[in-house]
Amino acid sequence: MLKMTIVWTSRLLQKSVAACLLAGLLAPAAWAEEPVDVPAPQSLIERVSSGAHEMAMNALSVIGINYRYGGNTPESGFDCSGMVRHVVRNALGLDLPRTARDMAQLGKRIPLDDLKPGDLVFFNTMRRAFSHVGIYLGDNRFVHAPSTGGQVRIDDLNNRCLLYTSDAADE
Questions:
Q1: Contact criterion met (CB below 8 Å) for 150 and 80
Q2: Is 20 a catalytic residue?
Q3: DSSP type of residue 14
Q4: 3-class DSSP assignment, residue 71
Q5: Which of 20, 53, 80, 161 is catalytic?
Q6: Pick from 107, 105, 110, 104: which is nearest to 80 by CA?
Q7: What are phi and psi of 170, to 5 degrees?
């Protein structure tokens, strides 16, 4: 039996990385009829870091796209949850729920100091919790689709936001 110590650096990636690891363990070279050189697998930390990097790069690639209520493609424009869904789907292959409120139900509240790149940040922008969502980049900055007339952009967090992390793979 294989024993591992796992340190998660981005909660959004936990289950997807574990699934990849499991899939890799279930396809050993011993099943091949001839000996096969198998490259050393990436470490778990490398896989998580790569996923967080992909999230950040995908989020940065949509900066400047126009806001559109209900929008979920670069061509039509994005609302906040549409932008997050698009980025997560392209970076990780995961489908998140359509609304910020439903996305927040997948996660757990974390302290501001514990935010990691790739974590989702939720806000109360319409006098109700979880009415806005963005993707944390690090250094107190996040990407989001702000509002009508705006474009996807990077902003600084402020202390009035509700901070949650999403374990999207728990769905």
A1: no
A2: no
A3: H
A4: coil
A5: 80
A6: 104
A7: -75, -10
The catalytic position among 20, 86, 132, 161 is 132
Contact (CB, 8 A) for 83 and 96? no
- Residues 54 and 16: beta-carbon distance below 8 Å: no
The question of whether 80 is a catalytic residue gets the answer: yes
**Residue 30, Cβ neighbours under 10 Å: how many?**
8
Q: Residue 161 catalytic?
A: no
Predicted local confidence at residue 7, as pLDDT: 32
Angstrom distance (rounded) from CA 129 to CA 111: 17
Residue 96: both structure tokens together? 């998140």
The pLDDT tens digits of the residues spanning 36-83 come to 566 666 665 566 567 778 888 899 999 999 999 999 999 999 999 999
- The residues with which 73 forms a beta bridge, in sequence order, are 77
The torsion angles phi and psi of 62, rounded to 5 degrees, stand at: -100, 5
Which residue reads 């980025």 in tokens?
Answer: 87
Report the DSSP beta bridge partners of residue 155.
142
The answer to whether the pTM exceeds 0.85 is no
